[in-house]
Design goal:
This protein is an alpha/beta fold. It has two domains: 6-77, Orthogonal Bundle (Arc Repressor Mutant, subunit A); 89-270, 3-Layer(aba) Sandwich (Rossmann fold). It has helices at 6-36, 41-48, 52-64, 86-90, 94-106, 120-128, 142-151, 173-179, 205-216, 255-263; strands spanning 38-40, 69-71, 74-76, 113-116, 136-139, 155-158, 162-163, 170-171, 184-190, 193-194, 199-202, 218-224, 236-240, 246-249, 267-270. β7 (162-163) and β8 (170-171) form a beta hairpin. α6 runs parallel beside α7. Residues 1-12 have low confidence and may be disordered.
Length: 274
């Protein structure tokens, strides 16, 4: 029987060491994500002094194991009680959000009236609408109002209410009451999570009340949600996906959601990859 050569023994030891190092790094990644809510790939690579390719492989494995949620540009943890920080959400899935936004913009004609609510995907829709003509926009999102004020001559109506410093959302009874004073052509709403039975879920009850007012007062409702929203389970119920006119997303939703959309004649619009 031949003996294992020195180089082979070293390779085996090196392999075991690499596995131990990866295990320790995985534990460290999960700990950092728990602490901060979201970690970008580049920040993790710098922290652990490895390549971004190594971190991507780590995150893919951790995502498959259900220990983190994999997003474009980084990783976060699912939570039913607290949303990911706004600055982190801004860098999550930006390409997918822009694709969704461009598709929504093609469905909005000139001279239309619309609501746009709080969220980074709805903010992408606002940017995509910049080339339109003569829109009337009611919004409870300071970022949407600022974007459109800088780049268009649309008539913009900002709801009353309390401004949330962390993300520019305007919430409270005054906000939802003011939305109820209008009846518009299109309501464009984002959401934090979509349950397996089609329940639309969010983190903030005040924000939910405003979104419900948009549902009631729009002739057509466009729900904009990237694929990660199907893996999140916030605790506040906003409504059902069966109440919207169309779902705009970047990947095919889970089969149960697709069946639900078909049964209730909700259009499914999947943004094409460029």
């Amino acid at each position: 029987m031949s003996e294992t050569g020195p180089s082979e023994r070293v390779t085996g030891d090196t392999g075991a060491g690499e596995r131990r190092g990866a295990t320790a790094r995985h534990q460290g990644i999960v700990a950092l994500v728990r602490q901060r809510g979201f970690m970008a790939i580049e920040a993790l690579a710098n922290h652990f002094d490895v390549t971004v390719q190594t971190i991507r492989r780590d995150l893919n494995q951790l995502s498959e194991e259900g220990r983190v949620l994999r997003y474009h540009g980084g990783a976060g943890l699912p939570s039913s009680v607290e949303n990911i920080d706004y600055t982190a959400r801004q860098v999550m899935n930006p390409v997918e959000k822009e694709r969704i936004a461009r598709l929504v913009a093609t469905e909005i004609p000139a001279h239309a009236s619309l609501f746009i609510n709080i969220g980074t995907t709805t903010e992408a829709v606002a940017r995509a609408l910049a080339g339109h003509q003569d829109l009337r926009v009611i919004t409870n999102n300071l970022n949407v109002a600022a974007t459109l004020a800088r780049s268009t001559d649309f008539k913009i109506i900002l709801t009353g209410g309390t401004v949330r410093n962390r993300d520019g959302g305007i919430v409270g009874t005054a906000s939802s009451d003011m939305i109820g004073q209008f009846r518009v052509d299109y309501g464009i709403i984002g959401i934090s999570g979509i349950d397996e039975d089609g329940t639309l879920l969010d983190f903030d009850a005040d924000e939910v009340r405003a979104a419900q007012a948009i549902l009631r007062n729009s002739r057509q409702v466009f729900l904009v949600a990237d694929h990660t929203k199907f893996a999140r389970r916030p605790m506040v119920r906003m409504g059902s996906i069966t109440e919207v006119t169309a779902l705009f997303t970047d990947e095919p939703p889970p089969p149960a959601i697709q069946r639900l959309l078909g049964e209730h004649d909700v259009a499914l619009k999947i943004a094409p990859k460029v």
